[in-house]
Amino acid sequence: MYELDDTIVAISSPEAGQRVIIRISGSETINICERIFSTPIPKEQGGVFPGRIAVDSELQIDATLYLFLAPHSYTGDDIAEIHIHTNASVTEALMGNLLSSGGQIRMAGPGEFTARAYLNGKMDLTQAEAVNEVVVSSNKLQLAASEKLLAGRLGQTTSKIRSELMDCLSLIEAGLDFSGEDIEFITRPEAVERLTQINNELEGLLSGSVRYEEVVDLPAVGIAGAPNAGKSSLLNRLLGQERSIVSELHKTTRDVLTGTLTLTHCKCVLFDCAGLITESHEILDELAQQAAIEALRNSSVVVFCVDITKTDWNKDISIRTLIEPESLIPAATKSDLLSEKLVAKRLCVLHEVFGVEFLPISVETGRGIELLRETIDKTIIDLTVGAGSSGQVLEQISTVALTTRHKQAITEAIENVSEAISELKGGNDEVAAMMLRAARQGLFDIESATGGVERTDEQILERIFGRFCIGK
Known about the structure:
There is one protein chain. The protein is an alpha/beta fold. The protein is built from 16 helices and 12 strands. The strands form 2 sheets. Strands 3-4-5-2-1-6 form a 6-stranded mixed β-sheet, with helices on one face. The protein has a 6-stranded mixed β-sheet with strand order 8-9-7-10-11-12, with helices on both faces. A hairpin with a 7-residue loop joins β1 (7-11) and β2. α6 (153-177) runs antiparallel to α15.
């Protein structure tokens, strides 16, 4: 699957950035860098080396080389990062120069740097998966969940449970080895008690840590609109807590504020950001605008809020053009401030102006809030399992491959331990031992390193690292 002896190279920086980072890893890293870099490179130590790099036979540009020597590097092999400020054409020429070294170096595959880190024992499999989740996270809750996974918390927990299983299994198998003698290493009731406690820990893992990590894959729902359109009040009402500051003053919200919204059939990350404006004269306003627009464009659903008490919606029309979500839910806020007759008239005008039906809502009276929740719920399901499928709600709405793999392994371990307990109660110690070995192996596959029989299937590795972008 992966040739660990090869030296690999890839661009590891975002395409849109002016700062380009080219990453090299493998045994030929230093030799290749010496060929193109002007500054002498000490082979016995890593460090940061400013200098000039040869793009081709005629062009040299300023660059900074960051060198990390094996085994104290991300991949466990020698790693070099070349940092340059340039354009796409120069970057392409430099990559061509690097790859012209005959068979010394080749392009990295998706996730191959992180795959090497895993295969070289620098991180467990859950941490390797978390690297990609950190890269693709689109909000703070997703990032926090990914960082928790990257810290190795799940692997540490499953490692502890595997050790407990091994202790119990060893005592049971020792009893089988000396079954002809009057030696008892652990009684069946004692073994059942230990295994029941282990099963409780596994159940707790399903309802605790793993459930929390599902937030990595929750769909994002943004609340957008002009300043003072009632977005912060709506966020607080939907979440049932004072998550966002509510004020009559404009520009109260500058940061992107998030919370987890539990709906009837699914969960989502709900966020409120700075009120969108067509013109900004301050740097803080401009930064807030950029953050808000980026967050909204990355979201699955946007609740577009328009103040129904206004009579001039020209700015709202301009704001609508700034966002391009997968799905838009138009909401007419502050409907409690107008009579029913006037609300009906304003809704007709909004439909003419924006070309869509608006849902009248009020955070003060609760009008339309439950219908808004149902609409968000249905929209997410339609986006996830196909339009018109909201009546066939599936559990897959809240999970994808990452958490599904973990949950499946833990669920199978629970089943195997439960079966072992039943067999022990029936006096079938050999079958119980077999079930415990299966449970332990299943938990090992969550975060296993290579080697021996306890090795993760290569198809699983290909499925995991194939989701990475090249350069990570």
